[in-house]
Amino acid sequence: EDQVTQSPEALRLQEGESSSLNCSYTVSGLRGLFWYRQDPGKGPEFLFTLYSAGEEKEKERLKATLTKKESFLHITAPKPEDSATYLCAVVDDYKLSFGAGTTVTVRA
Amino acid sequence: AAGVIQSPRHLIKEKRETATLKCYPIPRHDTVYWYQQGPGQDPQFLISFYEKMQSDKGSIPDRFSAQQFSDYHSELNMSSLELGDSALYFCASSQIGGNVHEQYFGPGTRLTVT
Fold first, then answer.
1. Considering only CB atoms, which chain B residues are within 8 Å of A44?
2. CA of B63 to nearest chain A CA: how many angstroms apart?
3. B42 touches chain A (CB under 8 A)
4. Which of A25, B75, B83, B112 is deepest in the core (most CB within 10 A)?
């Protein structure tokens, strides 16, 4: 069974303090790795799709990278509005299998 | 851009009652997925439909059923509700044949069973 493990569980950052979130996965034949942002009580918001090792994608202060065994979400110079839970998911048939998420808190 | 619409946004039911959750996918999306998210947990896949046919089934209780209609909207029917069914229920949609696996989530329905 596919597994997705995210670390750390929680991350507290000072505004402007860059950091990285990790998502490691075990899957036979990766068909896509996804990053979502989720605010409390709201639906996951799609951020990135990565399909092959070496691929990178950027959006504002976020950059996602993919290797054969893990993905990183880099947050550069975060702002308080980047506070959220970041979920990683892999495609399992057509459904998504999620990791437990990393809750990021950015203090001003 | 149009997003996934879910209704109702909040629902309060008593034990043993029934509930119906509705999902309207993004226009031209032909696949709908239902997920359940308990407090502090990641979303768990329940069931999906492609072109009105059930395409995959996850950890959906037998008390729950779902279908996708000709206009591609979907409904999740929940019967004999239990306290443990209290959760956020998300619908997501995607377009098979396009970028297949990008699923876009709705705002969710918060179900509280008392």
1. 43, 90, 105
2. 21
3. yes
4. A25
- Helix/strand/coil for B84: helix
pLDDT tens figures, A70-106: 999 999 999 999 999 999 999 877 788 999 999 999 9
Give the nearest partner residue to B106 out of A31, A43, A99, using CB atoms. Answer: A43
CA A75 to chain centre: 10
- List pLDDT tens digits, range A25-76: 998 778 889 999 999 999 999 999 999 999 999 999 999 999 989 999 999 9
Strands A10-14 and A102-107 turn out to be parallel
Mean pLDDT to the nearest integer, B78-94: 96
Q: Does B112 touch chain A (CB under 8 A)?
A: no
> For residues B49-68, b (16+ Cβ closer than 10 Å) or e, as one string?
bbeeeebbebebeeebebeb
